[in-house]
Structure formats: C-alpha cells, structure tokens
Amino acid sequence: MTPLEKINSFPLPFAALMGVRFTEAAPDRVVATLLVRDDLCTVGASIHGGAVMALADSVGAAATVINLPAEAKGTTTLESKTNFIGPAKAGTTIVATATPVHRGRRTQVWQTRIEGEDGKLVAVVTQTQMVL
User: Fold this and answer.
1) Could you say which residues of the chain have pLDDT below 50?
2) Locate the Thioesterase domain: which residues (predicted)?
C-alpha cells in the first residue's frame, strides 16, 4: 500500500467533513487541498483561522501516521503554532504541504505551509505530534 493509499484508507472524520482531499504522500511530504467554502469563512468571505489550523493539523497527523515506527499505536497532537500571513477567499482552493522538521521515536515535528491557488502564503503551522 502506498503512503497516499494508507492515508486515504482511514479518512479522518473532521477532515472529511471540511472537505480535505489528500493528493500526495511520501515519508518526506504530504499534500492536501481544501476548497474554501462559505461555511468555512469569517465575515468578509475569508477562511476562518480555525479551518486553517484544522487543515494543518490533519495534514501533519497524516504525515506522522505514515512515518510511525512499527511498534507505535497511533499519534496525537501535543502542540501547534500558527502564523497567519494572508487571506484565502471563498471559492478558492488552498494547498497544505507538510514537511518534517524532526522524526523521532517519541515525537515528530512537522511544518505545514498553506498557500492559495495563486501561490501566495496563507499560513505556516508548526506542530508536534506524540508517537503513542
């Protein structure tokens, strides 16, 4: 089973509810897209910060899952920090790309860059995942 098939074989319920679509997965990179819908926005038709954070959390968790040691039972987020850079408007698609900062036996740290379809940076998220 490829890493992308592994991720897609057990959909994350909240990510699925939001409409997150995993498009690429390898041990060093996981990519997902999200259509910015009106119900994911704040006043002014810009994506809500919580939706940005949930997207990044889902992508970082998926990246951790495909990098878990054989004896691991799963993962959970320990910490997440988000820097909001620019808006993403309703009707556009954003792309989240997670890359590893650290992959250890007990923790993994992932940085997720979220960009608009125009390539402009929306947010940068760094999260620490605990290996269970």
Assistant:
1) none
2) 46-123
